[in-house]
Write a structure and sequence with these properties.
The structure is a single chain. Helix 6 packs across helix 7. By secondary structure, this protein is an alpha/beta fold. It has two domains: 129 residues, HAD superfamily/HAD-like (Rossmann fold, 3-Layer(aba) Sandwich), CATH 3.40.50; 112 residues, HAD superfamily/HAD-like (Rossmann fold), CATH 3.40.50. A six-stranded parallel sheet has the order 5-4-1-13-14-15, sandwiched between helices. It has a five-stranded parallel sheet with strand order 7-6-8-9-12, sandwiched between helices. Strands 2-3 form a two-stranded antiparallel ribbon. Strand 6, helix 5 and strand 7 form a beta-alpha-beta unit.
Length: 275
């Protein structure tokens, strides 16, 4: 780590923390997570939890964190579903009716934000199609989403992830893979893909905490979402090897993380050395 990176790390005021693979894996909290969070609090460094996984609402995530022993507030939680809602409201204020391929929890979050979720019915035409990480995927709704994509409706995806990390012997097919299925059927990709690596995922943090991008460190276990977003936003990208990415991935990647650490415990050690 060169001196310029050390100076930037020393002056970080806010940590944006990925969740799956960074602070926990599936339902298992890493043993060093709360120690790291307490260290940040003791040193007056703020933090937020960022996730590309929109399958749970903000409320559901806070309950999930609480069960694992992490106390968090609504202001500290930012999902790709929330980012998608904010994007639509900012860029397409006339969109009210959406066909949402997502979990009931995600759909409720959109409805709570004032949108109408249309039915699986060709007569119930939406203003736009929104596709997320749908762990409750129903074949007929996938077909309806493909139909609306084929009709050239505005098409948004909540996140680009191919799979979701898990501590179980399984592969969790994520939003990027679902969109590829729709693309194979319709030859249509999403018009917009929200979530990391889109730098807009950091806009809420920048606005709420009145920060400059270079005062934020984005920590995550994926080069193509977490680190790439940090680079896109002008923030400090830190890759942890506690989730998806491996040392071999780092060596093969054209995108080089400014900092590579084994886990949050090693980041804490680096912070202590810098400060």
């Amino acid at each position: 780590m060169n001196q310029a990176i050390k100076e930037q790390l020393k002056n970080i005021k806010h940590f944006a923390l990925d969740m799956d693979g960074t602070i926990y894996n599936g339902g298992t909290l890493f043993p060093f997570t709360n120690t790291f969070l307490n260290y940040l609090k003791e040193n007056d460094i703020n933090y937020s939890f960022l996730t590309n996984n929109p399958s749970k609402s903000t409320s559901d995530y806070l309950k999930h964190l609480e069960k694992m022993g992490i106390e968090a507030t609504e202001e500290e939680m930012y999902t790709s579903a929330v980012a998608t809602i904010n994007y639509i409201k900012k860029n397409h204020p006339n969109f009210k009716r959406l066909f949402i391929l997502g979990t009931p929890s995600m759909i409720k979050e959109f409805e709570a934000a004032g949108f109408i979720s249309t039915d699986d019915n060709a007569e119930d035409r939406p203003d736009a199609l929104v596709v997320g990480f749908d762990t409750s995927l129903v074949y007929s709704r996938l077909c309806r989403a493909a139909y609306w994509a084929s009709q050239q409706l505005p098409y948004l995806a909540t996140n680009p992830d191919w799979v979701c990390p898990t501590d179980q012997p399984n592969i969790l097919v994520d939003c990027g893979s679902i969109c590829t299925c729709i693309e194979a059927a319709t030859k249509r990709k999403p018009d917009v893909v929200i979530g990391k690596p889109d730098p807009q995922m950091l806009d809420g943090i920048i606005y709420n905490y009145k920060l400059k991008p270079n005062e934020i460190a984005m920590v995550g276990d994926r080069i193509y979402t977490d680190v790439q977003m940090a680079i896109n936003a002008g923030a400090l990208g830190i890759l942890v090897l506690s989730g998806e990415a491996t040392e071999a991935d780092v060596a093969a990647s054209e995108v080089k993380p400014p900092i590579v650490a084994k886990d949050l415990a090693e980041i804490q050690q680096l912070l202590t050395e810098c400060r």
